[in-house]
Write a structure and sequence with these properties.
With 188 residues, this protein is an all-alpha fold. The protein has one domain (2-187): Four Helix Bundle (Hemerythrin (Met), subunit A). The protein has 6 helices and no strands. It has helices at residues 2-34, 41-59, 62-74, 79-109, 114-146, 149-187. It starts with a helix and ends with a helix.
């Protein structure tokens, strides 16, 4: 039972982080777009890059990497829901790709349809919010019902393994920076 609780808490924390990130991005974009008197390509490009980073975060969430594949192996009961979640992600990706194509075309053509880029970015955000809602309201309750204690243990083991790797990377970064700094000092 503790493994199920740990797994659900880890997923909930990650969902909250995704919602906070997306909320901050949307607030920043909406504030800037209201004040956008003239075309600001640099801002649009920065906003797009932030959404790309957020999209990468979303695709690497525990729910994507471990929970959904585990549900698929346990039961076909969730196939329709998972298909709908995948469709939401695919639509979101299309909107993001559309914004990226518009921005890339601006380099070549020297013109850009700002409203289309903004609309595509907002539509991306809308699809992701819908997906997060459906994960929380439909997918997680289904997982709670479908998974046995052993299933939760396996999922928790994956989560702990991933967390240990991430923690190791965080520790390695300051050590690597100190080594590089020392090497630069010695080369002078």
């Amino acid at each position: 039972m503790l493994t199920a609780t740990y797994s659900l808490v880890a997923i909930a924390a990650e969902q909250d982080k995704a919602r906070r990130m997306l909320s901050r991005l949307r607030h920043c974009f909406q504030s800037a777009w209201r004040g956008l008197q003239s075309f600001d390509f640099a801002f649009l490009e920065t906003a797009f890059n932030k959404l790309m980073q957020f999209d990468k975060f979303c695709r690497n969430r525990k729910i994507e990497l471990y929970l959904i594949p585990a549900i698929r192996t346990v039961s076909d009961e969730a196939d329709a829901l998972i298909g709908e979640l995948d469709a939401l992600s695919a639509k979101a990706a299309c909107f993001l790709r559309s914004a990226g194509d518009q921005l890339a075309g601006a380099y070549d053509l020297g013109s850009i349809k700002v409203n289309e880029v903004i609309h595509a970015m907002e539509s991306y955000c809308d699809k992701i919010v819908t997906r997060l809602d459906r994960e929380e309201k439909e997918l997680l309750p289904l997982a709670r019902r479908l998974f046995s204690i052993e299933d939760w243990f396996s999922i928790a083991a994956h989560f702990l393994s991933e967390d240990a790797v991430a923690c190791g990377r965080r520790r390695a970064l300051p050590a690597r920076a100190a080594t590089q700094s020392a090497a630069m000092s010695n080369s002078r």
